[in-house]
Amino acid sequence: MTGRISVVKTDITTLAVDVIVNAANNSLLGGGGVDGAIHRAAGRELVEECATLGGCETGQAKITGGYRLPARHVIHTVGPVWTGGDRGERELLANCYRSCFQIARQRGLKTIAFPAISCGVYRFPVEQAVETAVRETRAELEANDAIEEVIFACFGDDIYQAYLRALKEP
Ligand code: ADP
Questions:
Q1: Mind listing the pLDDT tens digit for each residue in 12-55?
Q2: Distance between CA atoms of 165 and 13, rounded to whole angstroms?
Q3: What is the pTM of this model?
Q4: Is 145 one of the catalytic residues?
Q5: How far apart are the CA of 146 and the centre of ligand 1, in A?
Q6: Is 34's C-beta closer than 6 angstroms to any atom of ligand 1?
Q7: Helix H or strand E encompassing 61
Q8: From the CA of 141, how far away is ligand 1's center (Å)?
Q9: Which end of the chain is more exposed for a tag (fewer CB within 10 A), N or C?
Q10: Structural domains of the chain sorted by starting position, each given as residue range(s) with its CATH number in brackets
Q11: How far is CA 19 from CA 41, 101, 115, 169, in A?
Q12: Which one is catalytic: 11, 18, 35, 157?
């Protein structure tokens, strides 16, 4: 099972996978961080498609084309802003991963790359975020043989190391 999970230090916009996940905001109209990088690399058509979607609730996800990205599609999900942990942040983050996998399943997408959702300006504690990502991914891979590879694309060494630690845990 773990054989279908990889952790790589890379810019997610370079990955030629079926789908990359965007850590978007509720408007889906672009922002900073990974969201800005994805929109820049995909080109103007991405924001035009996003503008037709009516935004997205925190914990939910919506799919678009990938346009000029090497990835065929983008799943936009909205992670929670961390405000101390007593506003359902952990469950909302788990819902992001579940929502993304649900769309991947419905669309038959086999290779999927995630950034560390909520670990940037949304300030989610990295260890906890990574533990959630790994737990939800393992649950999905156990239930769904169709997914061939899940890639955790890490921009910083701290997040990369946190994934390696989490994946060592049974
Ligand atoms: P959020 O608002 O959900 O916190 P951010 O984009 O601020 O989203 O950060 C999420 C994570 O994505 C951070 O760990 C950040 O370092 C990382 N990140 C930023 N740009 C990229 C990129 N091009 N590829 C992969 N990860 C990225």
A1: 999 999 999 999 999 999 999 999 999 999 999 999 999 999 99
A2: 25
A3: 0.97
A4: no
A5: 27
A6: yes
A7: strand 61-65
A8: 24
A9: C
A10: 2-168 (3.40.220.10)
A11: 14, 11, 12, 27
A12: 35
